[in-house]
Amino acid sequence: MHNDTFTSKLPDQHPEINRETLNEPQYEAVTTVNGPILVIAGAGSGKTRTLTYRVAHLVSCGIAPERILLLTFTRKAAQEMLWRAGRLLNDSCSRVVGGTFHGIANMLLRRYGSSLGFGSSFTIIDRADAEGIINLLKSSLGLTGKEKQFPSKRVLINMISGSVNKSIALDDLVLEHYAHLSDHLDDILTLQKHYADFKINHGLMDYDDLLVNWKRLLEEDEEARREIGNRFSHIMVDEYQDTNLIQAEIVRLLAGEQHNIMVVGDDSQSIYSFRGADFYNIMRFPKVFPETQIIKLEENYRSTQPILSLTNNIIRNSTEKYTKTLFSRIEGDNLPKLYGGLDERAEARFVAKKIEQLHKEGTPLENIAVLFRSGFHSYKLEVELGTIGFDFEKRGGQKLTESAHMKDVLSFLRLLVNSRDNLSWNRILLQLDKVGPKTAQKITATIAAADDPFAALAAYPAAASWQQGLARLNGLFVSLQQESDTGTLFELTMQYYEPLFQQIYRDDYPKRQKDLEQLKGIMASYDDLQTFIDDTTLDPPESESSATPLTDRLVLSTVHSAKGLEWDVVFVIGLADGRFPHAAALVGDQWEEERRLFYVAATRAKKQLFLCYPKEMMSTDRRFKRVGMSPFLNELDRGVYQLIDSDPPGSSGYATSGSLSSSSFLSGKRRHRPKLSMEDLTVGSRVKHPFFGEGVVKKLTKPRTLDILFTRHGLKSLHLDYAKLEIIKN
DNA sequence: AAGTGCCAAATTTTT
DNA sequence: TTTGGCACTT
């Protein structure tokens, strides 16, 4: 290749970037400047660091930093990477362009988008907005009703965005993946059509539109493509396994003819297929760019060998064949621990106590994380932590800007940058007393047809009962339109909104008020309203608790939100059947994705890993239900983890060894298992153990202790008080 | 047409 | 625990 111009050695003065700290393949990646590079690497192998090195190297070779485009999964990841690269090269990397696909799409569309027929005044809507529109359309099209089990708005928006991301027609998608809804196919298609029209008519763009239009821009606008191509000569993509088909196309188009492109990813960490991510993008990459150099990294720099043995064990059972066996040179004799609590509360208490203990022994709280499948799985733990008095930061779940009061305030501001945004109009009008859905819709329709929506609102013939409210609203807009300072805009809005706010949320407005205070702070740091609005949608600020300084705080997070991060000690909770894997995940692709999700969770741990599950859970109707442990735990080899029995012996009902298999307690009949005595058993009795399976009693050793030979697990010495034995035959 | 109160049902993950 | 639908009242 044309390497000659760029053979300069890496700068010696930078401690992080000499040959010793890089392993061989990474170094190769850094010094190969031309042509496509694909890095396939396992968890903890330093993929992201490799990208950083290359950025630093390119800059040191004289590539203008602003011509490097870095596409990462979260905006934070981009910031961090640029910061590190900048440190390597005395800050000359700060001009590198980095961000999420959606963020970059937004930037480019605002710059070049007019050629596609939409002006720069579009508003980005999030998932909740999309669901709101769907709901609105559902009722206006008369698609509700009991006799028709029409899919929920959440399922609908999943289907619509799924078909976009996978680039297949909606009817094919429904027939393939939502066959049980095929009766509603016509209605669903109608809805999709109306949804698309609604967005166009009201100047709204959802996450999918950003990508679709970016792709269109590159394909259809010759001039824009040339300009963008000139602007970015070197493209890099992190977490490539999480890209969808559209994103892969965008990457291909961006790479232009130079093919100066580098992507890194790990197929066993692909956990976003519900969003259209397709890890075959990685497999296809060498076909799209035939001169690709492939680099595989199998050494893990994060976790100890015992943790790696367990995580290797998890993906061993994966049906995909591209998985790797990672090895680590980091020593450690701490086996991952497995704990089964009686119920969720016991599980939460165990975790809280353990964290307290670790903290006393000197582990800072910020080096500990608790991970779970779904946002609400941590409720019980949050309560327990509260009683101990530990501060924590929760990630995942509902975002700050998704709460109703935040949307209310943002609606006013969104209208200032896009007065056609009828979703916001509707929201604001509904706040007025004596104005309900019907009236709001009428007003919105009138406004939408007018050239100047604000004037139309002022001229609208109001009924006497809400005339005053409307007048007040008009007054607000008159004063808002004369302002441009973001701080003042916020103040004015709050003056109007405050009384309504206290009325609408009279039960809990003090709590919500804190959020608004925080929004005020965030907003004041922006000069430009449009940027502020875009940012709050694309990268919502985290909720109130994370505003406090980041001192010694425990992290509670969904597994998805924990991606790419690491902690010394990691707890994975809620590893119960029906909870993790998620109950709706059927066998097949979805099942495999859940497994990879478990893999991602476990690989976050550097030194110590705890896997926990409740044996009993409350179901929706406040009844307790026995559950088994997650099938993914059942598959693990016995030797890769250690069972913990921290429950005091004698507290009946607490299993202290082994765990329940799903089948043995489903009947519920054995809830009050009579205690076995030695008289019940003799040498030769056949017994069944919930974990070890079937076995034969070989020897009665001490009082209440016996040796049993299990068919699958060999000879075990068990105590009658602890082991949950069932006599099959005496 | 708006507001209120009650009952039933649902409940993933995210840029 | 929260949300949505429905019937009933204002």
Q: Which tags fit this structure?
A:
globular; 7-stranded parallel β-sheet; DNA-binding; 42% helix; 6-stranded parallel β-sheet; alpha/beta; disordered N terminus; 25 helices; 730 residues
Describe it for me?
This protein is of the alpha/beta class. It has a 7-stranded parallel beta sheet with strand order 13-14-12-15-16-11-19. The radius of gyration is 29 Å and the shape is globular. The N and C termini lie far apart (77 Å). Mean pLDDT is 80; it is low at 1-15 and 648-674. The structure holds a DNA duplex (15 and 10 nucleotides).
Binned, the helix content reads 40-55%
Amino-to-carboxy terminus distance: 77 Å
Count of discrete alpha- or pi-helical segments spanning 4 or more residues: 25
* Category by helix and strand content: alpha/beta
Within the largest sheet, what's the order of strands?
13-14-12-15-16-11-19
